[in-house]
């Protein structure tokens, strides 16, 4: 297990380098620059700005400068938020997204997995139809529709929950539910398919025939084995959910980092684009490492020799 | 004995248990939600104004800030030598009076004696001298540095040609006298002294804290409010500045939220969680719903929208075709489709400014338009190439260009192709090689025709039409230095006629408006046509009566 972690850390370095380099090139290929605005600036002013942010240097030199700073953990400065560094911005925004994402993910697992299991068990019956209807709805209805509907019902009509903002624990409820909707639906479909496959296996019958209790069979044999695909998708899902969602943060006015995935690109805020992309990549690598560790716990066949 | 191959029983047990867990979770969520329930809360906090900024201000350093959100905040934290009134004049502020000398080339500002910063230190002319020189210092990389290019040596210093700031025409003669020397007379110069970028700044604070000097714990200001809290991307809190030299504001605290989504902000307003909202929090259907409400108000802004031609591209190299387009568009369509009380415009100078004349531009006249097109060799639009009209990808802009396309087809028989691009790509395209037609807009920086008319001079970096005329440039230069107000207005009017009636590189379409909603317990909100919001005269009623009057929820 230790070897696996070390190997993952070593592999992460080239992966991050590739991600940083690709993003660096892509953001500079896109037309339009950070200082383009509806009021065109005199060339002298643009020259001052470019000098301040080293954008006057040749691109390869900018790239080396960037990598140098990156190696020291400095993600650079924002061109849009003039007095703030990318590290500052992400340090403020990431904890908010992390809180909301963790709650949503928990909610998604607690709702999605049982829903899928019930659907599988009651295959073809009305419970199955209802569960799959709900999950199709969850996957196909976009977040802004779910969010707007929840706000309309719970905040405007019933007035039991706040419309938005990030003031008290009550302000977390609607955004967490909105954010959980789609992952819960996805997990439900996945769990259903997986449980359906496992209950038909010979070894489930064998487990019962050797006298194991029902509960033990379900927990140790059916559930544990049907969770493998679920755990697999939980890796990327975790990275996606805890880095925040543009839509959810926008409609509930939550100061998370999801918005930067979109706004940084619209503003051509080069370092912020790179910063958010790298944070996402790091989280994805961490989550996938956890998934690999979880495999070993769930399925001994996957254990790698140390 | 149960058949072990039959897993039905086994899983139905499992399902039951899971079902119970699931129900329990759902129940928990509902209970949690409901327990948050309907506790009576007051509909407003006396003395506290809650507004929506829409987004995080990109920066509160007024030398590097460039956007209206930052200026909205700074305008309430700081005051300059003069101050805009809501009637578009400049009133004394830090300067109690000023003298215009040497035929308009020298300004002498006399400062009040009782000026103090929020940390108690006296504010002097030296703070202005430091601030103006910092704005022009190329190291600051201030986007608005060109604002002071009329000052002696300013452009040279800002572009690095002049190394020392000593010879600049900016000097504090003593603690209470501030002298400015200009390269040439510029009548509009006084307006610049009310604009954010010309506010004073504290050298010791800026140098000590570097980029972090605008954080609430270090920030030192001189205006009616002071910054007490800044949760980035979420909320700012501004408290009344007890030491403000003018009247201390009645509002004790302003909470400025940053709600980016208009429908959420509007719902917050409807739920009494915001007291005042403007365009940033309005979707058009909401305007429709509240048009007749006493809480709704609509103000014209000094922001003009226009259709521009690249006069070097066919078919718009021919002025007759440009004129035909200008006369074929019925501007009254724009307020009908945008529904925010937009004001149709045919001249480039807006009605609120000197030099405006309703007859400067070409009016809607489809018959004359068709005749001009026929004269240019395209009767009924036959044989006319299909030009592109480029516009930035935004819903309201799309509506206006589609209406334009329809009008040209209907009134001229002219087909145009609509092309949209993402905002920054659009800007880059227009600057590099503008297509035959593009849609643009311009907001005034100060309340003077100069801010609009300068745009189409030869050397202006924002003139993407490729049109220029030495006679036009001469008129603008003469107007800049003219001290007689009536003569000056006439010079701008002549230039406006040249722009909108004779050469027609642009077709003005409409003036944008500010739509606001204010709760009945808030008074004193006034909108400035420059779209700056000053909250110092606002009152949020704190009497016992009003609480009863509006009720508790």
Quickly count the helices of chain B: 17
Radius of gyration of chain B from the CA trace? Answer: 28 Å
Which regions of chain B have little confidence, pLDDT < 50, spanning 5+ residues?
A: 1-11, 544-553
Task: Identify the quaternary structure here.
Answer: heterodimer
How many β-strands of chain A, per DSSP?
0
First-residue to last-residue Cα separation of chain A: 7 Å
Tell me the overall shape of chain B.
globular
Order of helices and strands of chain A: HHHHHHHHHHHH
Distance between the termini of chain B: 64 Å
The CATH topology of one domain in chain A is given as MetI-like fold
Rounded average pLDDT of chain B: 87
Low-confidence stretches of chain A: none
Textual characterization of the structure:
Chain A has 306 residues and is an all-alpha fold. Chain A contains twelve helices and no strands. The mean pLDDT of chain A is 88. Chain B is α+β, with helices and mostly antiparallel strands. Chain B has helices at 8-35, 68-77, 125-136, 154-158, 189-192, 203-209, 262-270, 284-290, 319-328, 333-338, 366-375, 395-412, 423-433, 449-453, 470-481, 485-503, 544-550; strands spanning 48-52, 82-84, 90-92, 95-101, 106-111, 170-174, 177-181, 225-231, 235-240, 253-257, 276-277, 296-309, 343-344, 388-392, 417-421, 437-443, 506-518, 522-523, 539-540. In chain B, strands 11, 12, 13, 14, 15, 16 and 17 form a seven-stranded mixed β-sheet that branches. Chain B is globular.
């Amino acid at each position: 297990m230790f070897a696996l972690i070390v190997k993952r850390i070593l592999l992460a370095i080239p992966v991050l380098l590739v991600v940083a380099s690709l993003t660096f090139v892509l953001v500079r290929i896109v037309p339009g620059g950070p200082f383009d605005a509806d009021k065109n600036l005199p060339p002298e002013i643009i020259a001052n700005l470019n000098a301040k942010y080293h954008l006057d240097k040749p691109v390869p030199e900018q790239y080396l400068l960037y990598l140098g700073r990156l190696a020291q953990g400095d993600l650079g400065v924002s061109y849009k938020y003039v007095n703030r560094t990318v590290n500052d911005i992400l340090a403020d925004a990431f904890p908010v997204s992390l809180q909301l994402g963790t709650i949503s993910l928990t909610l998604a697992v607690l709702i999605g997995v049982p829903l899928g299991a019930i659907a599988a068990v009651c295959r073809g019956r009305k419970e199955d139809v209802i569960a799959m209807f709900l999950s199709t709805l969850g996957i196909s209805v976009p977040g802004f529709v779910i969010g707007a509907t929840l706000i309309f019902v719970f905040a405007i009509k019933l007035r039991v929950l706040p419309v938005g903002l990030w003031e008290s624990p009550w302000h977390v409820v609607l955004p967490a539910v909105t954010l959980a909707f789609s992952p819960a639906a996805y997990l439900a479909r996945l769990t259903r398919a997986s449980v359906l496959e496992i209950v038909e296996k010979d070894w489930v019958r064998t487990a019962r025939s050797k006298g194991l209790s029902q509960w033990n069979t379900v927990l140790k044999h059916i559930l544990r084995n049907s969770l493998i695909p679920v755990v697999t998708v939980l890796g990327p899902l975790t990275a996606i959910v805890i880095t925040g969602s543009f839509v959810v943060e926008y409609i509930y006015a939550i100061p998370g980092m999801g918005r930067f995935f979109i706004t940084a690109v619209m503003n051509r805020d080069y370092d912020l684009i790179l910063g958010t992309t790298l944070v996402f990549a790091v989280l994805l690598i961490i989550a996938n490492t956890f998934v690999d560790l979880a495999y070993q716990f769930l399925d001994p066949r996957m254990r790698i020799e140390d | 004995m149960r058949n072990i191959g039959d897993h039905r029983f086994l899983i139905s047990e499992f399902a039951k248990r899971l079902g119970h867990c699931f129900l329990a979770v759902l129940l928990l969520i509902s209970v949690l939600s409901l327990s948050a329930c309907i506790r009576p809360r007051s509909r407003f906090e006396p003395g506290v104004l809650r507004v929506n900024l829409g987004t995080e201000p990109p920066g509160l350093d007024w030398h590097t800030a460039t956007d209206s959100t930052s200026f909205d905040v700074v305008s309430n934290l700081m005051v300059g030598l003069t101050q805009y009134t809501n009637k578009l004049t400049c009133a004394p502020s830090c300067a109690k009076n000023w003298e215009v000398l040497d035929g308009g080339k020298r300004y002498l500002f006399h400062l009040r004696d009782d000026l103090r910063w929020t940390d108690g230190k006296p504010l002097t002319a030296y703070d202005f001298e430091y601030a103006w020189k910092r704005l022009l210092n190329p190291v600051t990389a201030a986007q608005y540095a060109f604002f002071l290019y009329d000052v002696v040596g300013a452009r040279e210093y800002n572009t690095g040609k002049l190394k020392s700031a000593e010879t600049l025409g900016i000097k504090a003669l003593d603690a209470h006298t501030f002298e400015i020397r200009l390269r040439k007379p510029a009548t509009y110069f006084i307006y610049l002294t009310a604009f954010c970028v010309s506010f004073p700044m504290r050298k010791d604070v800026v140098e000590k804290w570097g980029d972090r000097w605008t954080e609430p714990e270090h920030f030192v200001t001189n205006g009616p409010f002071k910054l007490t809290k800044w949760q980035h991307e979420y909320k700012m809190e501004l408290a009344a500045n007890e030491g403000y030299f003018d009247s201390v504001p009645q509002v004790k605290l302003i909470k400025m939220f940053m709600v980016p989504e208009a429908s959420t902000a509007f719902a917050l307003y409807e739920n009494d969680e915001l007291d005042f909202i403007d365009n940033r929090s309005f979707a058009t259907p909401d305007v429709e719903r509240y048009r007749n409400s006493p809480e709704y108000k609509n103000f014209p802004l000094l922001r003009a929208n226009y259709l521009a031609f690249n006069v070097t591209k066919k078919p718009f190299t021919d002025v007759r075709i440009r004129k035909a387009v200008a006369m074929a568009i019925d501007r009254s369509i724009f307020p009908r489709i945008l529904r925010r009380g937009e004001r149709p415009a045919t001249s480039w100078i807006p009605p609120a400014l000197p030099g405006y004349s309703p007859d400067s531009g070409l009016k809607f006249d489809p018959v004359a338009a068709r005749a001009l097109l026929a004269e240019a060799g395209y009767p009924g639009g036959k044989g006319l190439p299909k030009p592109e009209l480029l516009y930035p990808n935004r819903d309201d802009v799309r509506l206006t260009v589609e209406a334009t396309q329809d009008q040209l087809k209907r009134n001229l028989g002219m087909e145009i192709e609509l092309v949209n691009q993402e905002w920054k790509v659009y800007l880059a395209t227009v600057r590099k090689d503008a297509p035959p037609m593009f849609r643009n807009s311009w907001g005034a920086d100060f309340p003077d025709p100069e801010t609009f008319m300068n745009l189409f001079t030869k050397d202006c970096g924002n003139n993407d039409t490729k049109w220029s005329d030495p006679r036009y440039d001469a008129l603008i230069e003469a107007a800049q230095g003219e001290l007689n107000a009536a003569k000056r207005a006439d010079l701008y009017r002549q230039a406006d006629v040249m722009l909108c009636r004779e050469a027609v590189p642009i077709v003005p379409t409409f003036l944008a408006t500010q739509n606001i909603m204010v709760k009945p317990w808030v008074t004193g909100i006034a909108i400035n046509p420059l779209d700056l919001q000053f909250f110092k005269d606002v009152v949020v009623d704190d009497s016992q009566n009003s609480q009863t009057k509006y009720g508790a929820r």
